[in-house]
Design a protein that fits this description.
The protein is mainly β. The chain folds into two domains: 19-216, Chondroitinase Ac, Chain A, domain 3 (Sandwich), CATH 2.60.220; 234-415, Sandwich (Immunoglobulin-like). 15% of the residues lie in helices and 38% in strands. It has six helices and 25 strands. It has helices at residues 10-34, 175-178, 263-275, 285-288, 324-328, 391-401; strands at residues 44-49, 55-59, 64-68, 79-86, 100-101, 105-109, 114-124, 134-141, 156-157, 166-171, 185-189, 193-200, 203-210, 233-244, 252-260, 279-280, 292-295, 301-306, 312-315, 320-322, 340-342, 350-359, 366-375, 378-390, 414-415. Strands 1, 4, 5, 6, 8, 9, 10 and 13 form an eight-stranded antiparallel β-sheet that branches. The longest helix has 25 residues, at 10-34. The radius of gyration is 23 Å and the shape is flat. The model is unreliable at 1-7, 146-153, 177-181, 333-347 and 404-416 (pLDDT under 50).
């Protein structure tokens, strides 16, 4: 008799099919409710809220959570609620040049649902609160996305239809001055998360800019003020991916991505890379969780992949440059002639640069290079490390990974 692990179970197959159909139905309903057609299975979840127990909905892959307390529903009937990270560029507010989006765009719904007790929504942010002086605002929009938003202002970021732009509900740390009965929310930030208490469900995000004066700066409990009028700073991360280019498996395409230091941004970056046939390559331990500070001072971001070891040819050799506006405010830009590109869809900035690595000496099996990213004129804002990998192991892992969504799983030979 065949091993039981390989025997198809018709009941399990039907259950899986029913689950997939239910998930697709939920996705279709949520796409209609949110006006977004860029959702995937990991970016939304449903739950049933009851008057006596409320509901908790979470998206672990994105670091987002909605908690509706007992007694919050105004009606005595259960309500279906949902939570989603909206990934499309049209789902987010269009920002003024001085502003930057610091969080995913989070939809808690159904939009407009009023509550007798405030719900708690938590999600990540990438503001570096230890550097510079921030003015941080929580924005919301209760309309569906529109392809033709109006112009933005300091307190009204465009997005949605003309009658319902994104509106600042509160300046973090100055709630008593800016809250009103029409915007019943409280917000607090710690080093990596934003927590919102709200009496209604809607789309939310965090937008920031450098504080224009000490009085306009957001105060964050437990974190010393930067002082000195220093410009705001946010945290970026680097990701490295690869795929085979030849039948021998020893020529590779490399993809370097720059994304905000957010779970949702990193998850989106990996999905974009996988959609292009790439799989993650391991970074040295010292660099795997390292962040790159990016300052609001108008200086561009530079990406350099060089110091290629003997036996390999790397193209292009030119340093890649991403203009400041693309990194800070997400100014739209297509693919550049140098191979760099901005990849929309995360709700925040995702920048990419591609390279080809050709094997020119068959006696050399290890490829090594140095990857660095830095902001012009800021030697303190540099992230650099060496990568050394066994090409044969990478090629074999790439072939295996081509039939799954797993990473290469090849450890670096050395770190630096």
């Amino acid at each position: 008799m065949p091993n039981g692990d390989f025997v198809s179970n018709p009941q399990h197959s039907r259950q899986r099919q029913q689950q997939q159909q239910q998930q697709q139905q939920q996705l279709n309903r949520l796409s209609v409710a949110s006006g977004s057609d860029d959702l995937d299975a990991d970016s939304f979840a449903f739950a049933t809220a009851t008057p006596d127990s409320g509901a908790v909905v979470s998206l672990p892959a994105h670091g987002v959570r909605l908690s509706i307390p007992a007694g919050a529903l105004l009606e005595r009937e259960p309500r279906e609620v949902f939570l989603a990270v909206l990934p499309g560029a049209r789902d987010r507010p269009r920002l003024a040049p001085s502003q930057t989006l610091l969080s995913p765009v989070v939809l808690a719904g159904p939009p407009g649902l009023a509550l007798a007790k405030p719900a708690a929504i938590s999600f990540g942010h990438c503001a570096d609160l230890r550097r510079g002086s921030w003015e941080l605002g929580v924005y919301h929009c209760d309309s569906l996305p529109s392809s033709s938003p109006p112009s933005s202002s300091s307190d009204h970021a465009s997005g949605g239809d003309d009658e319902s732009p994104w509106v600042k509900l509160v300046t973090v740390g100055q709630e008593s001055a800016s809250s009103s009965s029409s915007a019943p929310i409280l917000a607090s930030l710690d080093l990596g998360s934003c927590h919102v208490l709200t009496d209604f469900l809607s789309r939310f995000c965090v937008v920031g800019q450098s504080a224009s004066s000490p009085s306009s700066a957001s105060s964050v409990h437990g974190i010393p003020e930067a002082g000195g009028g220093r410009r705001a700073c946010k945290s970026l991360r680097l990701l490295l991916h690869g795929r085979s280019l030849s039948s021998s498996g020893m020529d590779f395409a490399l993809l370097v991505q720059v994304a905000e230091d957010l779970q949702s941004s990193l998850a989106h970056a990996r999905r974009v890379a996988e959609g292009q046939g790439f799989r993650p390559l391991p970074l040295p331990d010292a660099a795997a969780g390292a962040t790159l500070p990016f300052h609001d001072d108008g200086d561009d971001l530079h990406l350099d992949l060089g110091d290629c070891g003997a036996g390999w040819s790397l193209r292009p050799k030119a340093q890649q440059t991403f203009p400041f506006d693309r990194v800070w405010s997400g100014a739209a830009a297509g693919a550049a002639e140098d191979g760099s590109a901005g990849a929309g869809g995360s709700g925040v900035t995702l920048l990419q640069s591609s390279y080809s690595l050709r094997h020119v000496d068959p006696t050399v099996s290890v490829f090594a290079f140095k990857l660095s990213a830095f902001q012009s004129g800021r030697p303190d804002s540099c992230l650099a490390f060496h990568v050394d990998l066994d090409a044969s192991a990478v090629a074999a892992a790439a072939a295996a990974a081509s039939t799954s969504s797993s990473s290469f799983g090849v450890a670096p030979i050395s770190t630096g």
